[in-house]
């Protein structure tokens, strides 16, 4: 499944009572949120200024972060019932993903460590309720997590329209997505031609199509989870396109050297890289693969001596195959790689993903 970020809110109440410390009932107080691994999320309430360092656990776990805290003030003169409504965003006001979270409460009545308590809840598609008493100085604890009403993800192709004729390459596919964000890690947008997987994208911008199968073809966009599987139930939209080979080929021949993409992408263990050149292949043509550090992994330039022509794409359109090995013949690890075509004064770079 993709990484859900259900909108929701938490209503939390807790009443504290004195432990008869040096300054009782005057005390410093803090309430903050972490994930299940105690990674800081947000300070909700902090009642202390010059003595906040005595809120030992709060200070250790948050570093004193009060960015976008809901309540801040000086130390309290009396113990009270604290009520907080939290919109499940972090200290930068960004929505947090679904999962297990902890609300910590701490107070001290002296210039030293005081007492603390923690309450756990699960944020997700289901509501959560907890009514209890804590140990010793923590009472009347009530926590209500309420998920917002959410809709299922959708995707809709805006353009080209269904049954369009493609006259020129490249062309763009504009689309609209709701309740799904590949940029935030929800998953991927998969491109299919005639139900054959073609490429994945992590963008909400229009997709540039540089290569297109001959004849009438179904173009489909499908929402994929983090394992590259269609969501269950499947969420997709499709249109039927046809193309004019003569006009498309003329357009390609007039264009300068450029990459047409690789297929499949992601791939394992091999992929075919297609490209077009503004003139016949010469010794100046280079095709190299780089890792994320910018290091050359594979020099495919020698392969350009005997490339495979790409049918229906003009006399200067070719393809070469990379088998997922480096220049020493060793298989490379899974990850993101970049391939760059250089020909004359033209350089073009694209991204591909190797998944094992």
Write up what this structure looks like.
- It contains two helices and 25 strands.
- By secondary structure, it is mainly beta.
- The protein folds into three domains: 8-147, Immunoglobulin-like, CATH 2.60.40; 154-245, Immunoglobulin-like (Sandwich), CATH 2.60.40; 255-354, Sandwich (Immunoglobulin-like).
- The protein has a five-stranded mixed beta sheet, with helices on one face.
- β20 (286-290) and β21 form a beta hairpin.
What count of structural domains?
A: 3
> What is the straight-line distance between the termini?
19 Å
Kindly report the average pLDDT value: 86
Q: Say how many strands there are.
A: 25
Query: Which structural class do the helices and strands define?
Result: mainly beta
The CATH topology of the largest domain comes to Immunoglobulin-like
Q: Report low-confidence residues grouped into runs of 5 or more.
A: 248-255
How do the strands line up in the largest sheet?
A: 4-3-2-6-7
Q: Give me the Rg, rounded.
A: 29 Å
The number of distinct helices, counting runs of at least 4 residues, comes to 2
The proportion of strand residues reads: over 45%
Q: What gross morphology would you assign?
A: elongated
CATH architecture of the largest domain: Sandwich
Largest sheet: 5 strands, mixed
User: What's the CATH C level of the largest domain?
Assistant: Mainly Beta
Secondary-structure element string: EEEHEEEEEEEEEEEEEEHEEEEEEEE
| Helix content range | under 10%
């Amino acid at each position: 499944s993709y990484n859900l970020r259900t909108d929701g809110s938490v209503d939390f109440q807790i009443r504290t009572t004195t432990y008869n410390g040096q300054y009782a009932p005057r005390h410093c107080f803090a309430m903050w949120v972490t994930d299940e691994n105690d990674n800081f999320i947000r300070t909700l309430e902090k009642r202390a200024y010059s003595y906040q360092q005595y809120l030992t656990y709060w200070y250790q776990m948050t570093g004193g972060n009060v960015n976008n805290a809901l309540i801040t003030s000086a130390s309290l003169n009396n113990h009270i019932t604290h009520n907080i409504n939290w919109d499940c965003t972090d200290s930068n006001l960004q929505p947090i993903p679904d999962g297990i979270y902890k609300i910590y409460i701490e107070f001290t009545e002296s210039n030293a460590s005081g007492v603390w308590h923690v309450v756990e809840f699960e944020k997700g598609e289901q509501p959560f309720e907890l009514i209890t008493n804590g140990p010793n100085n923590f009472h009347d604890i009530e926590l209500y997590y309420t998920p917002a009403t959410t809709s299922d993800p959708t995707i809709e192709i805006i353009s080209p329209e269904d049954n369009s004729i493609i006259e020129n390459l490249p062309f763009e596919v504009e689309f609209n997505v709701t309740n799904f964000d590949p940029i935030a890690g929800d998953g991927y947008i998969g491109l299919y031609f005639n139900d054959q997987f073609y490429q994945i994208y992590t963008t909400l911008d229009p997709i540039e199509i540089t290569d297109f199968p001959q004849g009438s073809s179904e173009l489909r966009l499908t929402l994929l989870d983090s394992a590259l599987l269609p969501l269950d139930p499947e969420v997709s939209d499709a249109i039927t396109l046809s193309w004019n080979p003569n006009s498309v080929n003329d357009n390609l021949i007039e264009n300068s050297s450029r990459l047409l993409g690789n297929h499949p992408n992601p791939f394992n263990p091999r992929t075919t890289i297609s490209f077009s050149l503004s003139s016949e292949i010469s010794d100046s043509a280079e095709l190299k693969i780089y890792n994320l550090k910018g290091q050359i992994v594979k020099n495919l330039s020698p392969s350009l001596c005997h490339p495979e022509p790409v049918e229906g794409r003009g006399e200067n359109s070719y393809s070469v195959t990379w088998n997922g090995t480096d220049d020493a013949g060793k298989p490379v690890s899974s990850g993101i790689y970049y391939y760059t075509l250089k020909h004359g004064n033209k350089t073009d770079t694209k991204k591909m993903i190797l998944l094992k």
